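Here is an idea for our session: we take a single protein and study its fold together. To get us started, please write out a protein record for me. Start from the sequence, derive the backbone structure tokens from it, and show both lines together. Go ahead whenever you are ready, and we will take it from there:
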Amino acid sequence: MTNLSFKEKIKTFYDVNYKTLLIITLVIFGLALLFLAYKQFVVGELIVRGISLKGGVELTFPAKTNININSLQSSLRSETNSNDLTVRSTSELGVQKDIIVESSDVTIDLMKKSLETVGFKLIEGEYSSQQIGSKLGEKFFNQMFLALLFAIIAIAIVVYITFRELIPSLFVMIAAIADLVTVLAVLSFFNITLSIAGVAAFLMMLGYSVDTDILLTTRVLKTKTGTVLQRIHDAMRTGITMTVSSFVAVTLAFFITQSAAIKEIMLILALGLIIDSYNTWIQNAGILRWYLEYKHGKN
């Protein structure tokens, strides 16, 4: 008996178990939806929002020594009597660069005084601060949510016009929405703060997600040679190459940049690329294969 190569074993495993793998991806999507529903209706907050999306103050100062973020956050919360105060840091190649303190219910003056009390003397010109009203922050959040919703609707229309078939177009949008929901659930689970930059990253991720799904659907629907499974494998080779290249790029950008906003964007894009890999090549490919083989047979 001829020994199969690792690549052939993967193909055979996928060929035999694609329905089981498909169900697993749908279960993950369902769990993400349930978790977000829990956070919204039980906890009361879908995701931790930065001051740009809910209002408040932010103070940034350089980290001259390695600072314990959790210890500083605990001390500042005690000094200000605020549980809605968060401390995070930016880094470059693993070295802390800046400390960022945010709160929606503490004034700039109290924040500066509290920092000095716990041992951080702020020198004029070495720190920066900003303040955003709660109504303005809420308005930004609502507008960004609407922008994302309109983007989904517009993309759905374009996808339908491209393929002129309702069911495959629906599969593309399900996979794209699954990407958005799952990434949001991951961010919410780890209490990662979302800012306007993060919302922009979701829009970018939506475009990339639909791009890979369109690649898959175009190859499977419009290529007439080979079986459905062979067409999926052909599309997968191109798609995985695109995903790996993009993942390497955003990962390097995450570690190299000093900008907190760019780090947030790169983190969300990296998560999106990972999640899109299985939502496109297992979920969407599986549903599409199931549908086409049911409709036309395996050829």
